[in-house]
Structure formats: C-alpha cells, structure tokens
Amino acid sequence: MLYHDSVILLFAKAPVEGKVNTRLIADIGVQAATKLQYDLIHDRLSTLTKADLCDVRLMCAPDSQHECFLKCEQQYPISLFEQSGNDLGERMYNAIQDALRQYKFCIVIGTDAPALDEVIIQQAIDTLRQGMDVVFVPAEDGGYVLVGTQQAFDFLFQDISWGSAKVMQQSRSQLDKNNVLYKELATCWDVDRLEDYQRYLAMSKN
Q: Considering its fold, how many domains does the chain have in total?
C-alpha cells in the first residue's frame, strides 16, 4: 500500500431495481440500469484493489446489509460503512469528518465515473500531500467526480444544488468565499445519459 495516511471513500447505492441510474431507465430499462450499478461498483472496487493506493471504505446506501455490499466485503479488502445525512452534501461531510479522525487525507468518489482511473486518483492524493487544501476532478456535466480534502469544510457541502450542472461552480464559489486553496485536475465524464452508457459499454469491451 502506497499511502497509509490516506483513505478513499467510495459512495455507492445498492443495486435495487428502480432506485439506481434512474435517468437511464427510460432508455435502457430497469434491469439494465440495475445491472449497470452492480457492474460499476465492482469495476471501481477492482480498480482500487489492483492499485492498492490506500485504505478503501465502501459508503453504503441505504444501508450496508444489501447482498451486493456483503459480497463486496468478502471479495475485496475494504470496510463497509453506512451513509448518514439528509442529502448528499451532509452524507459526504459526515463521512469525511469521520474518516479524518483516523487519516490525514481523504478522497471521495462515486461509482458512476468509470474513466476515473488509479492514475488520476493518485494524482489527487499527491496534490493534497503537497499541501493543497482541496482537490477536485470536475465532471463534463458541471458536477465533480472526485473531491479530496485534508479538512472537513462544512461550507463545501452546504447550499449546493446536488445533481445539477451548478455543483462545481457553486463549490468553487464556497471555497473562494472562505479563502480555501483548491486545485482542479483534468475533467472526467460520468454515466448519466444514454451516450455515456454507450461510451461505458465501448470502454468495457477494450
């Protein structure tokens, strides 16, 4: 393991029919959307395990008891934690605050950015280790697919329109307002629309 002082928090929804990848259901159907979630979770965990950068916490929603999560715990060297909070911002903040009691640096990612590889994640950890307060990998759709920090900044997760194209812009604004140093790495895509799904399928074949 490269970094004993760092942790990756992988936020994941259980692959429950009708509850995941809901924007895609109209195009690909419920079963394909559910299978996509299952595959994305395993893709992420497989990538992180092979990279062996640092400890990984699988942040489970709605809880950690879903069969998929329990199998992941057996298959990969990870720990299961339950997400807690009323919205995504609160859930991320609570998870970061808890993680930073044990680790110096914390990276938060989701399951829906398959192009976010171990090279970029390592770059994010190194950026924090070089003294940057916060690091982002922006998403093509205006959000972000990675946020890393060495301090739990509550304002970074408040008054953000989660799921909208304004997330990255609003996050910058909050950090600028509070004079926090941050760096953005190269933009990455995530799986939100049919064309993203098709891009993921093409990538999976290679």
A: 1
